[in-house]
């Protein structure tokens, strides 16, 4: 399977993973401030980092020609993007700093969703 978009998708998801892991580290450092690190933050950030790992695995396998991984990548990236949009749009549920971080991650994922759902990519 030849696809020019998948190397870019791998790079985008690598950046998403770096940001997500950095956020988990930041949460650990800010753990003593309950205004910045709520229970929801403790739950959300490791889940996002885990989803970043899973998406990156799917992307790498898809780039290597594994067609089912491309399908999984398309589905899971759309679901994770929808969850990120909900976090960003849900006022008061998460601290502002996390909503900004999630918006940045959402931009990376939006690009992944668009790139993996192009007709050229789906047919390859």
Order of helices and strands: HHHHH
Distance between the termini: 6 Å
Radius of gyration, CA atoms, in whole angstroms: 15 Å
Classify the secondary structure makeup into a structural class: mainly alpha
Strand content: under 5%
Averaging pLDDT over every residue, what do you get?
Answer: 92
- Could you say how many structural domains there are in total? 1
Tell me the helix content: over 70%
Low-confidence stretches: none
Count of helical stretches:
5
Number of strands: 0
| Sheet with the most strands, sense and barrel status | none
Overall form:
elongated
Concise structural overview:
The chain is mainly α and about 120 residues long. It has one domain. It is built from 5 helices and no strands.
Structure description:
The chain is mostly helical and 124 residues long. It contains five helices and no strands. It has one domain (6-118). The chain has helices at 6-29, 39-63, 67-89, 96-116, 119-123. The longest helix has 25 residues, at 39-63. The termini are close together.
């Amino acid at each position: 399977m030849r696809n020019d978009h998948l190397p870019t998708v791998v790079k985008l998801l690598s950046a998403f993973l770096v940001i997500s892991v950095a956020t988990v580290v930041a949460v650990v450092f800010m753990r003593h401030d309950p205004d910045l690190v709520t229970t929801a933050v403790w739950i959300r950030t490791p889940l996002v980092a885990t989803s970043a790992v899973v998406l990156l695995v799917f992307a790498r396998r898809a780039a290597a020609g594994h067609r089912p991984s491309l399908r999984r990548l398309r589905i899971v990236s759309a679901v994770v993007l929808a969850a990120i949009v909900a976090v960003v749009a849900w006022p008061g549920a998460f601290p502002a700093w996390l909503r900004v971080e999630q918006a940045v991650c959402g931009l990376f994922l939006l690009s992944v969703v668009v790139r993996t759902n192009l007709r050229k990519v789906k047919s390859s």
